[in-house]
Amino acid sequence: REAEKLGLDKDAETQALLRFARMQVLAQRLLLSIRNKMRPTPEEIQKYYNDNLAQYPAHSFQRIMIPVGHAPKGGNELSPEALKTLAQESRKRLVAGEDPGQIQRDVYTKLGFTDPAPATALLVRDLVSLPPEQQSLAKLKPGEVSEVLEEPRTASIYKFEGAKPIPLDQVREEIGSMLEQQK
After folding, report:
1. What percentage of the chain has pLDDT greater than the value 90?
2. 3-class SS of residue 8
3. Do residues 130 and 138 lie in contact, with contact meaning Cβ atoms separated by under 8 Å?
4. What's the predicted TM-score (pTM) here?
5. Which one of 69, 89, 94, 148 is least enclosed by Cβ atoms within 10 Å?
6. Other beta carbons less than 10 A from residue 83's beta carbon
7. 155 exposed, middle or buried (CB, 10 Å; 0-12, 13-18, 19+)?
């Protein structure tokens, strides 16, 4: 108001700046409007996903993890031989078809962990990008169980369940962005 009282709003330079600012705001609003119109609907995302399931392959594994060298406070610090035995016993149970979740819970209980055992389900999108200690997983056939793999901080056992698509929830944003760019 003070600037208007001084007549600064009538100045030619101020008028040019106001026109420029107006054009900037309108351009931003136009882009936002276009982007909102181009945003794919949930139905379009679902249809694209269903029509292109082959583009979202994943490899489903069950994984038993045995922490090595970091037992919980007050837990059972097992000797390397005892850990190896625990890993081999866990592998035999997995080969026999026992529930991976129960095996994992039993491992954590034996080691003295009070935290819940980690989930055993694992989806791997790209077997080529596996770290060197897991490269043998690419050779497993559905139903096969890996040997005990020594990984950083764990000994792990994997059971390959087979190929299946990555769940839509894990690729929804990726598909949405791609469809928006196409539009």
Report:
1. 60
2. helix
3. yes
4. 0.69
5. 69
6. 20
7. buried
